[in-house]
Design a protein that fits this description.
Structural class: alpha+beta
Radius of gyration: 18 Å
Helix content: 25-40%
Distance between the termini: 32 Å
C-alpha cells in the first residue's frame, strides 16, 4: 500500500485516470480536486506505483476524526483486479468507523460485505445510475423565470439542504453540506424572498448533487435549468459533467436523458457501513428530490 503525496505523481495519476474515463469517474474527480487545493482533505492510495491495480481515495486522518460521521468519511475506489481491491480495502479502510464507499465495479459490494462479516458488522448498499454528458458546451442556452434569481448556494441555506437531503437530518450531515457549499460549485434559484426553491451542488468527486426542488415548485423545469448550468460550469473547470441518480428515481433519469446525458452501463454503488454509529440524532432517510443526488 502506497500513499501518493508527490504532486508530480498525482498529476500523472490524474492523466492516467482521465484516459480511463468513464470507468474512473469517481476517483478521477477526487484526484482532480486534490490537485486543485484539496478542499475536502483527501488522500490517494494505490497498491503499487507506477503500475497499479487499484486506486483508493479516502479522507486524511485528521479529517476522518469523527468515527460516527459517515458523510465526511467517504471513500472512492477503482480497480482492475478484485483481489487487489479486497486487500487494499482490508488494510486502508478504518472498519471501526461509519463510512461510505463509492465505486462502479461489480464485486465491490461483495468484497466489502465479506470484510465486514469478519468484523461482525453489516453493510447497506444503495444503487445508482451514473449519467455523463459528453459535450456540455452543446447544451442550449437557458431562459430563467423572471420571478426567480440565479445564485450560488450560500451557507445560510444549509438547514434547508439538510432537511431535504437523503442522508441529512443531523448535525454531521449539516456540517458536511456546509463544506460542499463553501468549497465546490453550486447553483440555486431564489424566490422573491431570497429563499432557494431549487438547487444543486457538487462534491469532492466532481459529481453533481445533492440536488432538490421544493414540492410546490416542481414540474416547472427548474431542475433542468440548474443541471444545464452546473454541467457547463464543471466542464469549464475541466471536470467531466456527471451525476448519480438512484435507480428507482425515474423522473430525474428522464430529465437527464432529455438533455443528452448518457446512462453508463455499470451501476454505481454507495456502500454504507456502521451507520448505526450516527445516532445523534438517528439517521432518517430523506426524499431523493428530482436530480442527481
Amino acid at each position: 500500500m502506497l500513499i501518493l503525496s508527490c504532486s508530480s505523481k498525482l498529476r500523472l495519476l490524474e492523466g492516467t485516470l482521465r484516459r480511463g474515463l468513464p470507468e474512473t469517474l469517481l476517483v478521477h474527480g477526487a484526484v482532480m480536486n486534490i490537485n486543485r487545493g484539496n478542499p475536502a482533505g483527501q488522500e490517494v492510495l494505490v497498491d503499487s506505483w507506477p503500475e497499479f491495480k487499484v486506486v483508493l481515495t479516502r479522507p486524511r486522518r485528521e479529517v476522518a476524526s469523527d468515527d460516527s460521521d459517515f458523510c465526511t468519511n467517504t471513500y472512492a475506489v477503482h480497480y482492475r483486479d478484485l483481489g487487489a481491491c479486497r486487500a487494499l480495502l482490508g488494510s486502508a479502510v478504518n472498519w471501526d468507523q461509519a463510512f461510505r464507499i463509492h465505486g462502479f465495479r461489480d464485486g465491490l459490494y461483495e468484497a466489502s460485505r465479506d470484510i465486514a462479516e469478519t468484523k461482525g458488522a453489516k453493510l447497506d448498499v444503495l444503487r445508482y445510475f451514473t449519467y455523463l454528458h459528453s459535450d456540455p458546451s452543446s447544451l442550449p442556452e437557458i431562459r430563467l423565470d423572471p420571478a426567480l434569481r440565479l445564485s450560488p448556494l450560500d451557507v445560510s441555506h444549509v438547514d434547508l439542504l439538510n432537511e431535504t437531503w437523503l442522508f441529512g437530518g443531523n448535525e454531521r450531515s449539516r456540517k458536511y453540506l456546509a463544506s460542499l457549499i463553501r468549497h465546490f460549485p453550486s447553483a440555486c434559484l431564489l424566490d422573491a424572498t431570497g429563499r432557494p426553491v431549487s438547487w444543486t451542488a457538487s462534491d469532492a468527486f466532481g459529481a453533481m448533487g445533492p440536488a432538490y426542488t421544493l414540492p410546490q415548485h416542481r414540474r416547472c423545469g427548474y431542475s433542468m435549468v440548474l443541471t444545464n448550468l452546473m454541467a457547463k460550469q464543471l466542464h469549464a473547470l475541466g471536470f467531466p459533467s456527471y451525476g448519480n441518480v438512484r435507480v428507482e428515481n425515474f423522473e430525474p433519469q428522464k430529465m437527464l436523458e432529455r438533455q443528452g446525458f448518457q446512462r453508463q452501463p455499470n451501476l454505481c454503488y454507495f456502500i454504507l457501513h456502521n451507520t448505526a454509529l450516527n445516532t445523534d440524532p438517528t439517521l432518517t432517510p430523506r426524499p431523493a428530490g428530482e436530480s442527481p443526488a
